[in-house]
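sorry for the late reply, my laptop died twice this morning and i had to redo everyting from scratch. anyway the thing you sent over, i finally got around to it. pasting the sequence first so we're on the same page, its 727 residues, then the predicted structure underneath. double check i copied it right bc i was rushing
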Amino acid sequence: MAVGSRSQAVAIARENGILEDRRETTPSATIVLPRHNLPVQITTFIGRENAIDELTSLLAEVHLLTLTGPGGVGKTRLALQIATAVVDDFSDGVFLVDLAAINQPELLAKTSANAIGVMESPDHNIKDTLEEYFQRSRMLLLLDNFEHIIEAAPFIGEILSSAPNLRIMVTSREALRIYGEREYLVHPLNLPKLNGTESVIEFSQVEAVALFLQRVQTAKSDFEITDEDIPTIAEICRRLDGLPLAIELAAARIRLFTPGALLAHMGGRFTALHNDRRGQPARHRTLASAIRWSYDLLDDSDKKLFARLSVFQGGRSIEAVEAVCVADLSIDVLDGLESLLNKNLLHLEEGPEGEPRFVMLETIHEFARDQLDNMGETAQVRSRHAEFFTRLAERADPYTRGGPDQMRWLRRLEAEHDNLRTAYAWSNPDEELDLALRLVGALGFFWWRLGLYAEGLQWTTWAMDKSADAPTPIRANILHAASIVHHYLNEHDDAKQMFLRALALYRELKSQHDIGWTLAHMSYSSIGRRDEYEQAISLAEEGLALLLEINDQPGVAHAFNVLGELARLQGDLSRAKEAYIKCLDICREIGDRMRETFQLINLAFIAQNEGNHAEAQVLVQQSITIGLEIGHIVLTADKFSALAGTAAAQNDPKRAARLYGAADRLYETGGFIPQAADIVEFERDKSMVREQLNAEAYKVAWSKGWEMSLEEGIAYALGDEQEQQAD
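ok and here's the structure:
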């Protein structure tokens, strides 16, 4: 039945149980997409007003601004302050890329892409993808700790040469030395110059002193500076060369020392440490002395905890620290972490769902790694780290497949991505091969759900080559993970062969859960092959029966989805719709909102094929809205394409062409790949639009779509088409 209005389409969709009252919104007014990924700063920024003004002005003039200076001088904090201040000046956002965790120049492109949300595509070089993306972006990229990969500097020049509206701000201990770079040397904080007449108020406003006092009062809230303290605190700041990190480390010790005792304790110790490091520049020696001095004041348990924390990358959860670092220590994990926080050797950040995560500044991280090596514990602690994150991935696997906790576990794995990579990198050469193989086998659905196909392909290719002698469960899981990756890369021949091999191993293991999932997934690999449909449906039904027996609701929903896809591509719309609605009902019952978004798109295709174009439009827009609510935008390009089809069918070809432009930008520069089951509809609808518009009109409308940012594209997609006839 055709529908004549959006409200009628909504009513019909509700009658069919597809839409619920609570889901109708005015979504275009509720879009909340991140304009940046800058961390919240929980301490007040001290001083440097002139530097901020100068650097902010420079950003408007130069394309590459590099903040240089020794470790601990405050480059990162200053850069973050500037980046936060200019967020509104960049329509495509301001993004921090932390390079501390990498030491291979070739990883710069991948790490940058991850930070800004650009997806990798195995058939498209990630460097080329980024260059294309930046060409049309007005964005500020903050590359922190670039000294680790200074050899990658030429790539920055290549990007900037073709991206007129891109600005890059770099923090590094040395300049990049490429054309167009403006270097800015970050100086230590201003030091007090005493003449004997300054008041406490005047003295407290000097930058180095202000920082010292602020951190002292954080450690000891009742501390009050007196006139007698002025020369002592001035000398402490002078001994520390005005380096913010050194000052913070010293100030944290005020619980143990009065200012006078603190200076006395620093004196001889700093002299000895300086003498040990004659080959280093003065400020490097000062910072190294400050870190060493603070470390030497720790008790033995805190020293071990501090050193062991160095095996993590990208943050540490309490659970991970407890498993990896404190098994043989006579301290409570929270007490140990609080002790290091109080001494400014750790900092606190907020992780998924407000979970506390503990991070180290890179300068301190380097020192901690050296201490772990000196203790002779590196291999042992790295092994525990790899074991913990392998077990974490294995625990997450069933949740990443579907259900109410799916997004929570996906976000948790995403937060631990650097640690997962670190565990894999350490395990895979020859240390503990089984750990790396187990890890690969547990991440198939993680890569699929977050669109990390290139990484999944790389890891599974390596694992299949190394797993010939691995235990059967490990080999089966690797094959299943590999087949998932190949399937969603639309490499169905390879995927099917891997599914068959995995299925044989799971049958050998008599694992009903894994057999059911593999049968359902394998049958999906027959999409586009009509001669295989009957066999594929039979396999999917076999998988469904097995999953129903064990009441695996996410698996049952998946099997119904596959049956719906196969029926739709055979032209059996009634059977497809029935399967999709059953899947949707289960998704809503178990709270699987990600799969719910997929089903709304599938039901939109059914409505479109039945001539209910307004209803199809509503379904796609609801899918986009739910995707925003749960923070999952991997299939946004497909949703734009589906929505374009509804616009074309409702005789609005310019809107359709613009949506295709927005979709194509995501496909081409974001690494997104159209779902195989949907390609027939996409090609049919795009042909319809090209018939409705002449080539020039199509190009103009398409280009407008391509020029839109993701945020603009979503706002346009969710807007009322009646208001956009001017297109």
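The longest helix spans residues 378-400.
thats about all i looked at so far, will dig more tmrw
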